[in-house]
Specification:
Layout lengths: L5 H4 L7 H14 L10 H5 L2 H6 L4 H20 L1
Length: 78
């Protein structure tokens, strides 16, 4: 079996180490083998690495997550 890791595959990706770590963490979340352990799209879309790349602050991401949680509660109550 080949000794291949995401880190080995990402060697040539340019950028600082923190961005690369965030990218690899995001990819690992997507590539989770068991579907029940894989995050829902709503969780992935609000990933901190992805939101940072889109120019959102941590405070904005937190507010988005809180809005999503409140929206889900109000919808389930109806």
């Amino acid at each position: 079996m080949p000794d291949t890791t995401l880190e080995n595959l990402a060697v040539d990706i340019e950028g600082d180490d923190k961005d690369k770590e965030g990218f690899l963490r995001f990819i690992r979340r997507i590539l989770c083998w068991l579907p029940e352990e894989r995050p829902a799209i709503g969780e992935l879309i609000l990933d901190s690495w992805l939101m940072k790349g889109l120019g959102f602050t941590e405070e904005q991401v937190k507010a988005f997550k809180e809005e999503g949680e409140q929206g889900g509660k109000s919808r389930s109550a109806n």
